[in-house]
Specification:
Length: 422
């Protein structure tokens, strides 16, 4: 059974590509760039465990808030024979229309010509990097980052430049300095501006403006990956890239219903310059022909039922309660052994070990914690170069306050054991 963080660490083709004795020699050189995802692998690892585990690892919505009964009803009503044949690659016209209509009441109104429905946010990222990144191109990523995103850029041969984040998101001064030192400009800047995965921090408006300026100076595309923006539960709203620079061809926005409805639907969309639309369609045709049609109809039905706003309000309330509960449990059981970020929305807290605990490797801590019955994502899995061995990501969204308290207590016990190992 897989039980260690080592079994989570993606080691894709090491010992495979170029290894004649394994009979896989004809693999493309590209296969070496397929680094996999520690985050996604944690799902299988946890599924294989037989003991009780409090799961702070996956960034999944709370099972209790997924409107399963409405989905079932919609599936009965919204599905007809047209739901089970091939759909248009760009997406079901009804869903695109519903999306555009609902966007009219938000701060990011869009138009049908800008939208292509995707199979989740991951496909949006794949499309972005496929269109913009050649092997050897420089791609800026936040540090820490959502390594599924940076891994997608790697799959297209990117050289990654990690730029540190602080409480205001990516440090744009350091970005400028690091790019100067790199001696070449980036093709793409990958950012998660709101309640970032994994740190929970939000990119300040001032930095967003500067990022757009830098992108224009360098001719870089901003890959604006924002699955959590609609889940702000406190604090002041920050203008999005599309508001700061409307119709900007250098802004490629990746969106998904995974966090606001349900990740198993695998329905997302990209919002990009209309001149890219045909290219996006061509690229998607070489991937999956079209996004799952029945699920697009369910999402469309949900939006058309008028329930989305009330649903979002319910989520915001619930996730604020859960974040507060996790912070209280951390204060109670871990005190000043750790410091955490204070997200104003989204799913994640970033926890950094302090004082003498800072010497503990969170990769080792993960193994002990798993045995104690609690799971998280260790920091090095959230940095392409494996930084942050003294930090980890906790998802507060999936777990009730009562279970969260049990999990944090187990975590404190695991930290004691890791400390005792020396
Ligand atoms: N980007 C970020 C920042 C995410 O957190 C996620 C989901 N964890 C995705 C993209 C991918 O979303 P999806 O599940 O819709 O593919």
């Amino acid at each position: 059974m897989l039980t260690t963080i080592d079994s989570l660490r993606p080691r894709p083709t090491e010992g495979i590509a170029g290894s004649a004795d394994q009979g896989l020699q004809p693999l493309a050189a590209r296969a070496d760039g397929l680094v996999g995802s520690v985050i996604d692998s944690s799902t299988s690892l946890l599924a294989a465990q037989t003991h009780d585990i409090v799961r702070f690892a996956m960034g999944a919505p709370a099972p209790e808030v997924i409107p399963v009964d409405i989905f079932k009803q919609l599936a009965t009503e919204a599905h007809d024979e047209g739901s089970f044949t091939y759909g248009a690659t760009e997406g079901e016209p009804g869903l695109i229309e519903a999306l555009v209509d609902v966007s009219a009441d938000t701060d990011e109104p869009t138009r049908a010509e800008r939208v292509v429905i995707t199979s989740g946010g991951m496909q949006g990222l794949d499309l972005a990097f496929k269109l913009y990144v050649d092997p050897g191109d420089l791609v800026v990523v936040e540090s820490p980052t959502y390594t599924n995103g940076s891994g997608t850029a790697l799959a297209y041969g990117a050289d990654l430049l990690e730029v540190p984040c602080d409480d205001d998101g990516m440090d744009v001064d350091q970005l400028e300095r690091l790019v100067r030192e790199a001696g070449r400009t980036p093709k793409a800047i990958y950012t998660i501006p709101n309640f970032q995965n994994p740190s929970g921090v939000t990119l300040s408006e001032e930095r967003r403006v500067r990022l757009v300026e830098l992108a224009h100076r360098w001719g870089s595309v901003i890959v604006d990956d924002d699955p959590y923006g609609l889940l702000r539960f406190e604090g002041e709203r920050v203008r999005g890239f599309a508001e700061i620079s409307p119709d900007d061809p250098l802004i490629f926005s990746v969106r998904t219903f995974s966090k606001i409805l349900a990740p198993g639907l695998r329905v997302g969309w990209v919002d990009a310059d209309p001149r890219l639309r045909q290219l996006l369609i061509n690229a998607k045709q070489a991937m999956d022909t079209c996004t799952n049609v029945p699920n697009q109809h369910v999402v469309e039905g949900f939006i058309r039922s008028g329930g989305l706003q009330a649903h979002l309000e319910g989520l915001r309330k619930e996730y604020l309660t859960r974040k507060d509960a996790m912070q209280e449990s951390i204060a109670r059981h871990l005190g000043d052994r750790v410091r955490t970020t204070d997200p104003q929305g989204g799913f994640f807290l970033w926890v950094t070990l302090q004082g003498e605990d800072a010497a503990v490797s969170t990769q080792r801590l993960f193994e002990i914690a798993l045995a104690e019955g609690v799971a998280f994502i260790p920091g090095p899995a959230l940095s392409p170069s494996g930084r942050f061995d003294d930090a980890f990501r906790l998802c507060f969204a999936s777990t009730t306050p009562e279970r969260t308290d049990v999990g944090i207590e187990r975590l404190a016990r695991a930290l004691d054991r890791a400390r005792a190992e020396g």
